[in-house]
Specification:
Layout (H helix, E strand, L loop, with lengths): L1 E5 L20 E2 L2 E2 H10 L5 E6 L3 H8 L8 E6 L5 H8 L1 H4 L4 E5 L2 E3 L3 H11 L3 E6 L4 H4 L1 E4 L5 E4 L2 E2 L8 E11 L15 H11 L4 E5 L4 E3 L3 H16 L8
Parallel strand pairs: 1-4, 1-6, 4-5, 8-13
Antiparallel strand pairs: 2-3, 6-12, 7-14, 8-12, 9-10, 9-12, 10-11
Helix pairs in contact: 3-7
Amino acid sequence: MRAMILAAGEGRRLRPLTATLPKALVEVGGRTLVEYALETVTRSGIDDVIVNLHHHGEQIRAHLGDGRRFGARIRYSEETTLLGSGGGIVHARGLLGDGPFVTLNADTIVDVDLRAVVAFHERKRAVATLVLRKDPRMAEYGVIQTLAGGLVGRFLEHTRPNAVGPMEAFMYTGVQVLDPSIFRYMPAQGAFSITEVTYPRMLAADEPVFGYPFEGTWVTVGTPAELENARRVLPARLDSRKLPGLS
């Protein structure tokens, strides 16, 4: 099992802080955001990690190095132009291997147990498994609805053919497990969003896309207000040993 941390974004909403600093190296609770993502991966037993780079990528490479001090082997996928959440994965395809892999965002602190998500993914024989959560702001982020058993029946405005039965609403956390067959639903090159392009295609093809419900800590840092909130709430939560790196 390999994991990819998406760290190439420009972090425009966090400027001027990110004018000279990649968002992945913004600090919260005395640690950089990318370190939280990396430890979520390694504490789940995944030590083969790919990190994509673009905006001030050399700073991320210098900070993480080969990953040895974090208990991982890190390789890098450099993007000369920003390729988005889908294009970045396609660009790194040669590093991701032939088996299922995990991706997560460098700007999100999440305490999910990836071993449990991968086990769910394998049990369901899914092509893609999205970690989902309840949130009062679900409509703002985009609603994903699942049928009984977790099969995604509706993804944003796209509905699975012949989806029958009650559906439960969630939002996507940015954490996913993907089977290599997902590349059939991705453009071969160029910039694109996996949520705007790939998942609608998969639902239309009636592929087994599942949602894994998650109730733990999830803190995203995309705006100054979110950064302020993260710096306010996380130090208290750090003491409760509910977050990565605290065992």
